[in-house]
Amino acid sequence: MSRNPSSIIRRPLITEKSALQKELSNQVAFEVDRRANKIEIRRAVEAQFGVKVLGVRTANFRGKKVRYGRTMGRKSDWKRALVTLAPGERIEYFEGA
Asked: How confident is the model over 12-17, as a mean pLDDT?
């Protein structure tokens, strides 16, 4: 199934851990569509940012329970993709973050 790359990649994850991984091992983290597989994620990153991807690791996260006043709610489930870039490749979106 061929989908639009912008519908697969939801947003970049910019945290202390992802900043450290970017510096040490040239990896960047994204929140991605829960139905996307590793091949689709690889193609979306290569198409959207014009970089060479060496590997993709994914993890599914369950939404946490939250309280809104008296009622209990739940945040939605989400998926993270940790993308390893080829040596020398950079994504300009993450520079200066």
From this structure: 93
Is 92 contained in some domain?
no
CATH number at 38 reads 3.30.70.330
**pLDDT band at residue 91 using 50, 70 and 90 as cut-offs:** confident
Average pLDDT estimate for 39-59: 96
Which pTM does this prediction carry?
0.87
Q: Between the CA of residue 41 and those of 25, 47, 66, 79, 83, what are the distances in Å?
A: 19, 10, 30, 11, 9
d(CA 35, CA 65): 22
| Domain that includes residue 23, residue range | 5-87
Report DSSP letters for 30-53, one per residue.
EEE-TT--HHHHHHHHHHHH---E
Q: What pLDDT was estimated at residue 3?
A: 79
